[in-house]
Design goal:
Keywords: Repeat
Strand order of the largest sheet: 1-2
Distance between the termini: 148 Å
Number of helices: 24
Structural class: mainly alpha
Strand content: under 5%
Protein name: Pentatricopeptide repeat-containing protein
Pfam families: PPR_3, PPR_long
Radius of gyration: 42 Å
Oligomer: single chain
Length: 438
């Protein structure tokens, strides 16, 4: 009876851990074939995946290594010279990258991979990046901007907005508008907002490329920043208006600056003065010339020449001469351009006698004719057909045998030359002889 009781208990036994009847578990454990198959299949697949990953990593490692080449003696002489010219105090870390860039093979190498290998191998700091970029810029290396753009993506470079501005300015300087705009978009995607310096560079770029609409939009965006506009910001948009032929708008902005006592640079005044000068707008040229002095800029000979040219183009020789005399009274020595302009003014009005008086007065002051003025005077003499006669006359004066007489035109004759060329014949003869050799 005890045995029978024991048998009943055994048949109804339930596994405590699984909560399943023991007979069921025994039946399951007797057929483990499928389980082992899946286990082995899984292990094989895992091994295959591991091998695949190792192959990929090996290939990547090999690919990475291939970017960093050993610099041997077979490089070109130009490359050897560039390497030899690297600053002696440059760190080995920076020299290593510079050598790779100098010997870079455009067809077989990848610049991005090269830089990543350098970062991985040397762990550079921002200072190292800046040293490399400065040297590439000084060398005017063709990879400078590419390296600079790739550096922006590296954590060790510690990129800031001014780094983007430098690249934008560099592209603008080369008139690569699309590349500059791409850099601006990349900057904004990184969370940087265009500031006054960046927008000024863009205005300057659009101004040079003749895109006034984008220059104006950039200027308006700059004003929305709410910061006081400096002379460079104003100057850039004024230059845009000058290049677009809208001189009045440029002058309005210049006047606005003057009211704020925020004076533009000399180059802006000069650009606007030149613009008025070339079209013969002597009133506009005089306004800008006066505004230049009010801005505390002392006019030089080149600015005076632009004012004189405005009067010459307008056919006002008297005012041109007054501007010339005022320049001399201010202590400025006229250059060849200024002398040539006055001769041109007299030639337009056929005042040869005035021109000769003018030249003799210059000679008394020790101011001699140079190439441009000499060319104008020679052409003038040829046009009236008196080159040979003038040369003979002046030589007669020089030898005190002034017996030759002739008439240049209805306004001047030998009496005039005898009166005004006496004592100056040597220099004037040199002029005529120079003309004959032209």
């Amino acid at each position: 009876m005890y045995a029978s009781s024991t048998c009943i208990i055994t048949s109804n036994y339930t596994n405590v851990k699984t909560q399943l009847p023991q007979p069921f578990l025994n039946s399951f454990l007797k057929t483990p074939a499928n389980f082992r198959f899946f286990k082995l299949h899984f292990q094989a697949k895992a091994v295959k995946n591991v091998e695949s990953m190792e192959e990929i990593e090996a290939k990547e490692e090999e690919k990475s290594k291939s970017k960093w080449v050993r610099i041997g003696p077979d490089i070109s002489e130009a490359q050897k010279q560039d390497i030899a010219n690297l600053p002696p105090k440059m760190s080995n870390r920076c020299k290593a990258l510079m050598k790779q860039i100098i010997c870079f093979d455009y067809e077989e190498s990848d610049l991005s991979g090269l830089l990543k290998e350098w970062v991985k191998s040397t762990i550079p700091r921002r200072a190292d990046w800046l040293i490399v970029l400065k040297e590439l810029c000084a060398m005017n290396h063709p990879l400078y901007l590419q390296v600079a753009e790739l550096a922006l993506l590296e954590e060790s470079f510690e990129t800031n907005i001014r780094d983007y501005t430098k690249i934008i300015h560099a592209y603008a300087k080369q008139n690569q508008v699309q590349e500059a705009e791409n850099t601006v978009l990349a900057m904004k995607r990184r969370g940087f907002i265009s500031d006054q310096v960046t927008l000024t560079a863009l205005i300057h770029m659009y101004s040079k490329s003749g895109n006034l609409k984008m220059a104006e939009e950039s200027f308006e965006e700059m004003k929305l920043l709410g910061v006081p506009l400096d002379r460079r910001s104003f100057g850039s948009i004024i230059m845009a208006y000058v290049r677009a032929g809208m001189f009045d708008k440029g002058e309005d902005l210049l006047r606005e600056m003057d009211e704020q006592q925020n004076y533009a640079g000399k180059e802006v005044y000069k650009a606007l003065l030149r613009a008025y000068s070339m079209i013969g707008d002597c009133a506009g040229a005089q306004r800008i010339f006066d505004a230049t002095q009010l801005a505390g800029i002392t006019p030089d000979v080149k600015l005076c020449a632009l004012l004189i040219n405005a009067y010459v183009v307008a056919g006002q020789s008297r005012e041109a001469c007054i501007a010339f005399d005022n320049m001399r009274k201010a202590g400025l020595r006229p250059n060849d351009k200024c002398v040539a302009l006055i001769l041109t003014a007299y030639q337009k009005e056929n005042k040869l006698n005035k021109a000769l008086e003018f030249l003799i007065d210059l000679e008394k002051s020790g101011i001699l004719l140079e190439k441009e003025a000499s060319t104008i005077l020679a052409g003038w003499f040829r046009s009236v057909g008196v080159v040979e006669e003038v040369e003979l006359l002046l030589r007669d004066y020089e030898s005190c045998e002034a017996k030759y007489s002739f008439s240049l035109d209805s306004t001047i004759g030998s009496d005039f030359l005898a009166e005004h060329c006496k004592g100056h014949t040597t220099r004037m003869t040199m002029y005529i002889e120079a003309f004959l050799r032209l």
